[in-house]
Amino acid sequence: MSSVKTVLAEKTCLVCLRPFNWRKKWQRDWANVKYCSKRCAGNRNRSQND
Q1: What is the rounded (10 degree) CA torsion for 18, 21, 22, 24?
Q2: What is the mean pLDDT of each run of 10 residues along the chain (50 residues)?
Q3: Who's near 6: CB < 8 A, 6+ residues apart?
């Protein structure tokens, strides 16, 4: 087995502006993923109103 990690797709969270990588749980819906976490998804309206 190889211990070399493959390069994963990366996006930037629209709320915290931090980069996040592709995760297996998002494999079916990666095109629509906008937030790195449920916390950021819940805070999306607050960041737009600042």
Answers
A1: -110
A2: 77 96 94 95 74
A3: none
